[in-house]
Amino acid sequence: MSIAGTSRSCPYHWDESQWTNDVRLPVVGVSWYEATAYCAWLSDRVGRSVRLPSEAEWEKAGRGLDGRLYPWGDRFEPFRCNTRTRGPGHTTPVDSSPSGRSPYGIRNMIGNVSEWTSSRFEPYPYDAADGRENLEGESPRVTRGGSWFSPNLRARATCRGMNDPWFTDHDLGFQIAGDV
Question: How far apart are CA 33 and CA 121, in angstroms?
Answer without folding.
Answer: 15
